[in-house]
Specification:
Blueprint (H helix, E strand, L loop, with lengths): L1 H33 L5 H16 L6 E5 L6 H8 L12 H8 L5 E9 L3 E8 L4 E5 L2 E5 L19 E3 L3 H12 L3 H4 L2 E7 L3 E6 L4 E3 L9 H15 L6 E5 L7 E4 L1 H13 L1
Parallel strand pairs: 1-3, 4-6, 6-7, 9-10
Antiparallel strand pairs: 2-3, 4-5, 7-8, 8-9, 10-11
Length: 271
């Protein structure tokens, strides 16, 4: 019995070795086909080679996914377009990888064979980075500014809110700047990209801060530092200020709220 079992294992092993050798020849035929040297004989040989591989056990039985979190399994299976029993050696792994990368949450995908009967789908999913309002529509974007189509923005209300053309591409530099003063930056409720050149920041008290576009000697970093000093010295966010304009390096222009304007006029009349 033991000898018979060993012989069966050896025959199975040799059969699979033969299939692999056959597929090596098929790869050569595939190369010839890709170079344009194809005819009915070549196609028939390729089909026979695939049939041999399937009969030898190299047919799809399982799809294994790694890194999947937000991407529905059904969506992965649908874009792969493969079925149980398909020849593993008849699948183009690069093409399958590209198909998976068309899914909204997928940033990168690598599809590979795990012989004898499995294909492995390795995913890197996108990380939501900000909420972006553009043309009246609110969408999620990742740090590369790619839109995550179909994602529910309501699930990510805690993320920064940016507005306007070019905002996602420029957001990283702004967020890094604001992160230097977390107690102040947490009061920012929106960042509006103006003319794809500069930012307006909106605070939770309704005040708007106008930052400058970058020049050789003055930019948003210098203006933000000036605003930090202004909040320390004057507590400007507690004042009736509707807008603080720091676009010029040598002056700060402030516009009062209607209540602040009325208080200022009454104070002026009283003097």
């Amino acid at each position: 019995m033991r000898s018979h079992y060993k012989k069966g294992r050896i025959r199975g092993f040799l059969k699979k070795c033969f299939a692999v050798i056959t597929m090596a020849g098929a790869v050569g035929l595939g190369f010839a086909w890709s170079q344009g040297f194809t005819d009915a004989w070549t196609n028939t040989a390729w089909e026979k080679a695939l049939a041999v591989s399937v009969n030898s056990g190299f047919a799809l039985e399982k799809i294994k996914t790694v890194g999947q979190n937000k991407t529905p399994e059904g969506a992965i299976l649908e874009v792969l377009g493969v079925s149980e029993g398909d020849a593993l050696f008849g699948m183009d792994m690069a093409t399958l990888s590209e198909r998976v990368e068309t899914l909204p949450w997928v940033s990168q995908a690598v599809v590979s064979r795990e012989l004898p009967a499995t294909i492995k789908v390795l995913l890197v999913e996108r990380e939501p980075y900000a909420r972006w309002q553009i043309n009246g529509e609110l969408v999620l974007v990742d740090e590369t500014a790619a839109v995550i189509r179909g994602a529910k923005t309501s699930d990510y209300a805690h993320l920064p809110f940016v507005v306007g053309p070019g905002a996602p591409e420029a957001a990283s530099a702004l967020f890094n700047l604001l992160a230097t003063t977390p107690d102040l930056s947490k009061k920012v409720v929106a960042a509006v990209r103006v003319g794809q050149r500069r930012w307006d920041l909106e605070f939770d008290n309704g005040m708007r801060l106008k930052l400058p576009e970058k020049s050789e000697t003055y930019g948003e970093a210098e203006a933000w530092e000036a605003f930090i000093n202004l909040t320390k010295e004057k507590n400007i966010l507690a004042m009736d200020v509707a807008e603080a304009d720091l676009r010029l390096p040598d002056r700060i222009i402030m516009r009062l709220t209607p209540e602040g304007q009325e208080a200022f006029e009454n104070q002026d009349q009283g003097t």
